[in-house]
Task: inverse folding
């Protein structure tokens, strides 16, 4: 089945809620677009997907994912180009990642055409919900979860795949202050760190709440054996500019989420001729580079913020203050380059953009 031939049934709403979107004041995640995609998996196969009016679900209290957490998600954005046409950034890469998460969580693989054509068709139907002003987008949230009505512990047999979308306003990337975590652990080799599993977020709420009380914005997670090697920040991958090189933790151990933004950043920098090293990074190496004046920039990458500059990193008693971000070359260049591709202002030489 090719991407364009999948049969998605459409039931359109008769009462659009588009008036609820105030383009001048979009609050992320507060308002959802008119339609959603729903597909059931039963008896070992996917049933016909449907796009229907956005509505509440009705589920048995015994629904398995509520109890045992077999649930994963994705996050993607659609942007409007100068002609008002929506562009979706790298949805196939999110599809591949969703299926890596699905395998580890014993969830069924989602067919490419269901995922990609589902997004295309949903964004097409709700294209009025893709905001037009600079820095705005439509956030797309595909998710997959187990719905057996059974509280016995076993891998489920019935599943639901859904896609909802929500307009996202400009993301003011006020530089963040980071606390290097060496008490709580996000991910171990052999665990689920590389998946976008709901539980990875659930477990992070308490440690994040604690460091916010201390005045920090986000956690930089470290490895669980020695608390020595950095992993990622909150819900973003992390990059450091050390001298004229860019470094980021590698993905070999399976403890880090393979960000689509991370991959885009590495690709763009290497094409520009910048050396990017994917390797273990010890917190001591960062502290030493800081003392030698070699820690030039530090930033997070992810679909929500794109590039999130880091203002300071606190490790034990030491706070490493980064130079003012106006002076940064790498992060500011990346931010602009990514935006130009996403909003269709620059030729898409990588085949990253899906035209709706
Ligand atoms: C989603 C996510 C990222 C960023 O991935 P993108 O594909 O760039 O949005 C990074 N880390 C974690 C833990 C995530 O869940």
Result:
């Amino acid at each position: 089945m090719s991407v364009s031939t999948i049969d998605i049934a459409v039931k359109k709403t008769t009462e659009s809620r588009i008036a609820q979107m105030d383009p001048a004041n979009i609050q992320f995640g507060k308002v959802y677009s008119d339609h959603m995609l729903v597909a059931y998996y039963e008896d070992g196969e996917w049933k016909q997907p449907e796009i229907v009016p956005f509505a509440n679900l009705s589920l048995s209290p015994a629904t398995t994912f509520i109890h045992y957490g077999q649930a994963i998600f994705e996050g993607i954005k659609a942007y409007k180009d100068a002609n008002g046409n929506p562009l979706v950034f790298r949805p196939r890469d999110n599809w591949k990642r969703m299926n890596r998460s699905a395998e580890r969580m014993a969830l069924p693989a989602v067919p490419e055409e269901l995922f990609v054509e589902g997004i295309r068709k949903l964004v097409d139907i709700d294209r009025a919900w893709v905001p037009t002003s600079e820095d705005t987008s439509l956030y797309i949230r595909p998710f997959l979860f187990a719905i057996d009505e059974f509280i016995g512990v076993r891998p489920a047999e019935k599943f639901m795949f859904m896609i909802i979308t929500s307009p996202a306003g400009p993301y003011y990337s006020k530089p963040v202050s980071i606390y290097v975590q060496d008490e709580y652990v996000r991910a171990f080799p052999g665990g689920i760190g590389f998946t976008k599993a709901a539980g990875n977020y659930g477990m992070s709420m308490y440690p994040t709440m604690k460091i916010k009380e201390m005045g920090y914005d986000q956690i930089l997670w470290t490895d669980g054996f020695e608390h020595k090697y950095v992993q990622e920040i909150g819900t973003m991958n992390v990059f450091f500019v050390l001298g004229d090189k860019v470094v980021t933790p590698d993905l070999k151990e399976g403890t880090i989420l393979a960000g689509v933004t991370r991959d885009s950043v590495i690709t763009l920098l290497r094409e520009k001729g910048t050396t990017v090293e994917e390797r273990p990074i010890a917190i001591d190496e960062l502290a030493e580079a800081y003392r030698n004046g070699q820690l030039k920039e530090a930033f997070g990458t992810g679909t929500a913020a794109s590039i999130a500059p880091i203002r300071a990193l606190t490790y034990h008693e030491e706070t490493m203050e980064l130079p003012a971000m106006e002076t940064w070359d790498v992060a500011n260049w990346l931010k602009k380059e990514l935006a130009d591709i996403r909003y269709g202002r620059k030729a898409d030489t990588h085949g990253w953009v899906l035209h709706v």
User: Anything to note?
Assistant: The mean pLDDT is 95. Residues 75, 196, 232, 235-237, 257, 259-262, 301-303 surround pyridoxal-5'-phosphate (CB under 6 Å).
